Amino acid sequence: MQFRTRAIHVGNKKDEATGAVVRPVHFASTFVQNHAGEWREFDYSRSGNPTRKSAEETIASLESGSHALLFASGMAATHAATMLLENGDHILAGSDIYGGTYRLLHKITNRSGIEVTLSDSRNLEQFEQQIRPNTKLIWIESPGNPLMSITDIEACAAIARRHNVLLGIDNTFASPALSRPLELGVDIVMHSATKYLGGHSDVLAGALVVKDKELFDRLYFIQNATGAVASPMDSFLLGRGMKTLDLRMKAQSETAMQIAERLAEDGRVKRVLYPGLPTHPGHEIAARQMTGGFGAMMSFEINGDFEQTKKFVESTKLFQLAVSLGAVESLIEQPASMSHASYDAADRAKHGIVDGLVRISVGLEDVRDLMDDLDQALRSAIA
Ligand SMILES: Cc1ncc(COP(=O)(O)O)c(C=O)c1O
Question: Where are the beta strands (DSSP E) in 11-120?
């Protein structure tokens, strides 16, 4: 079955008891057993829930994986992956990563005696040199957040294999509609399912997807032992959202491309970071490893200081001032004061998260209205 068909049918069999074409939401926390000490498929909702399982089957199929686990949030999913490591191990992460992942690695993971190094994963030669004998996990994002940096995923997977290190990727920005890293040799795909998979700003969930049963068993053990599972209602909404993922992602990517082209010609904008533009340093790699579009996230730097940038992001009317991304409504934010405020100021400067940087998540609105909105906000912020 093709991607769109799987998004609708895998994990979504009709309800045998009633014939309902949409499966019911199973809110039960516990399940009756036939005999003491003999377990049916479901026994307790932390360990497994039918609604969660349906959505897990869908996401596993869309990511070309064999198994998926749904968590209470993207951070809970990333945290579970880091719990594969032990005291004395080392994580090598890309430098263009979500601020919350940076905070998890530097303020929580490090407490367990796990060392963390950030390095620019666009430069794989230098990146590989950061691998140590105790490196157990490499963690990247592509496109990265917020600079839209592109990592050559296949080449990075070859490096990870050579050093016998697990490679995890946060695939939130691309979604499986545009990029399927497990097909390129990655071991663990992570999602903030809160974003494109859900797609409507009404779900908080995270996912880990793998293609190896042994790795799945280790992650399942961690999930069940620590308990940050996705709720039945979030799992249901996620399953519903994924049915339109491909359509949304492609339409939103098309709109983003048009906006990026327009902004690139605007004298009030210093630079546009969008992998679909041929001027983007990662364009060729993105064109090779992304299919059907370059995503609907972009950042750009306006010709303004911190205050003017703040005024700009506060002046849009359709683009709503909010963190998060990936839904049908367009959002805007200033990474330096919002999504990446949890970076140390020095790390922000080092990694190019400057005050004039603006990040937008392009939604499903008409492209003409979105362009007009950015134009009027630029006029009010930059005299
Ligand atoms: C790229 C990326 N990864 C991870 C996360 C964390 O996900 P959640 O907010 O669902 O915990 C986010 C949230 O904004 C994100 O943008």
Answer: 67-71, 90-94, 115-119
Decide: 201 in ligand 1 pocket, CB within 6 A. Answer: no
Is 170 an active-site residue?
Answer: yes
Q: How far is CA 7 from CA 212, 234, 237, 243, 292, in A?
A: 21, 17, 13, 5, 16
3-state secondary structure of 72: coil
How many H helices and E strands in the chain? 14, 12
CATH fold for domain 3-242:
Aspartate Aminotransferase; domain 2 (3.40.640)
Q: What is the pLDDT of residue 346?
A: 84
Domain boundary assignment for the chain: 3-242, 246-381
CATH (one of 3.60.20.30, 3.90.1150.10, 3.20.20.140, 3.30.390.50) for 246-381: 3.90.1150.10
Average pLDDT over the chain, rounded to an integer: 96
Give residues with Cβ within 8 angstroms of 252, minimum separation 6. 296, 362, 363, 364
Equal CATH topology for 3-242 and 246-381: no
Q: Is 195 an active-site residue?
A: yes
Find out whether 68 and 59 touch, Cβ atoms under 8 Å: yes
pLDDT value at residue 182: 98
With the most atoms of ligand 1 within 8 angstroms of its CB, the residue from 59, 102, 172, 342 to mutate is: 172
* Total-model pTM: 0.96
* DSSP states of 102-168: HHHHHHTGGGGT-EEEEE-TTSHHHHHHT--TTEEEEEEESS-TTT-----HHHHHHHHHHTT-EEE
Q: How many angstroms separate the Cα of 126 from the Cα of each of 129, 159, 169?
A: 5, 12, 19
